[in-house]
Amino acid sequence: MTDVIPASVPQPSFAESLKGRYFSTRRDTIVSIVFATLALWLGWSLVSWALVNATFGAGQGDVCRENMHGGACWSIVAARWRIVLFGLYPFEEQWRSGLACAIMVVVAILSCVPWFWSPRRLPVLWVAGFAAFYILMRGGLFGLPEVTEQNWGGLALTVFIFAAVVLLGMPLAIVFALLRRSELPWIARTMALVIDTVRSLPLLSIMFTFAIVLPFVLPGWAIGDKLYRVIVGYALFFACYQAEIIRGGMQALPAGQEEAAKALGMTYWQRIGYIILPQAFRNALPPTINQIVITFKETSLVTIIGFFDVMASGRAASGTAEWNFATIEMYVFVGLIFFVFVFSLSRYGAYLERRLRVGTR
Q1: What are the C-alpha distances in Å from 155 to residues 160, 302, 337, 341, 355?
Q2: 55-104: pLDDT as tens digits
Q3: Whole-angstrom distance, CA of residue 148 vs CA of residue 146
Q4: Most buried among 89, 201, 299, 355, using CB within 10 Å?
């Protein structure tokens, strides 16, 4: 008996597929036409405002004022971009702030190279990059004039806070997760109480506590600068959330792996360093990337307690009498800055998920 070879099913054309999805019934046709018309109208209105009728050029403030309702005034970006990127940093030293941000961008790009994906190389890369960033921003070494933290601002301050929080918070999160899994009940329960308490508090209240309340209870030598107190508080908040993410990755591992490692005579730190943590970070990669993205976006909260970050710089750039009519354009520019950083982080996370086959079977 001969086998019958089934005939191949012809694939529908693009027009047939489009008709089947959006115009198969009268109701689908009406809904598709209405939404397509609305989308085209909104798209054209945005393009008309942002490009067709927009005003460009740093010296076009008077033209913008005469054409306030015709289109966007991107002249404010051309004229005030230095305030957004550098804040209160001295004008003649702003190249240092720009170079410092470029170094951190290069560090982030190099972190995408698989050669750096090791417990030794990646921390060294980030610590070295952050040290170079800090030396350029602060100065006082290699003939660079000193610029105190009170004069930092703009994008550079946002990048500094974000990098410092992640560098401090990630090792602390690992320690918290290991203590949370301790076999000694009093250690595990105490750590669980600390983590749950911090996670139940709003980030803004923690920032206020470390910035304003903490100096009243600390000795004079331990007070330090307000910026670093806020960073420590933010890092603690980040560590508590990230500790639960890492612990979830650890719990996803089969129990037999750790038992097999014990049977092979591996010490506790060998089991943690070679067996548990690498797989835990792999399992927890999607929520870890999400937590890092949230951390970068929430750095804008520091503007409420008096720091001149990129959000506050954008507000100051459009707060003068000359440019107070172009607030929307300035916030769009600041939003694009956040979009570039956050979208890049999310795309990198998606790349890591595909490369490491996270969530696939």
Answers
A1: 9, 13, 9, 11, 31
A2: 777 666 676 776 666 778 888 888 888 888 888 888 898 999 999 999 99
A3: 6
A4: 89
Instruction: Round the CA-based radius of gyration of the chain to a whole number and report it.
Output: 26
Assess contact for 89 and 156: CB atoms under 8 A: yes
Amino acid at 63: V
pTM of the model: 0.84
Report how far residue 325's alpha carbon sits from residue 145's, in angstroms, rounded to the nearest whole number: 37
Q: Which amino acid is at 75?
A: S
Q: Please state the three-class secondary structure of 17-43 as a single string.
A: HHHHHHCCCHHHHHHHHHHHHHHHHHH
| CA–CA dist 231, 253 (Å, integer) | 33
CA dihedral 136, 141, 145, 149 (to 10 degrees): 60
First and final CA of the chain: distance in angstroms? 38
Return the structure tokens found at 19: 């008709």
Map out the domains of the chain as residue ranges. Answer: 90-356
What 106-114 contacts at long range (C-beta under 8 Å, 24+ apart), as own/partner pairs, is 108/344, 112/348, 112/351, 114/355
- 55 forms bridges with which residues in the sheet? 73
Cα distance between residue 145 and residue 149, in whole Å: 13
Whole-number Å distance between alpha carbons of 318 and 331: 9
Neighbours of 115 (CB within 10 A): 8
For the stretch 176-192, pLDDT in tens is 999 998 888 899 999 99
Per-residue pLDDT of 235-285, as tens digits, reads 999 999 999 999 988 888 887 887 888 888 888 888 888 888 888 888 888
Q: Residues near 241 by Cβ (< 8 Å), separated by ≥ 6?
A: 173, 199, 291
Residue 168: C-alpha distances to residues 111, 126, 164, 233 (Å):
17, 11, 6, 10
Q: Which residues does 233 contact at the CB level (< 8 Å), separation at least 6? A: 206, 207, 209, 210, 211
Rounded alpha-carbon distances, angstroms, from residue 127 to 121, 131, 153, 261:
10, 6, 22, 31
Which of 249, 332, 314 has the alpha carbon at shortest distance from 83? 314
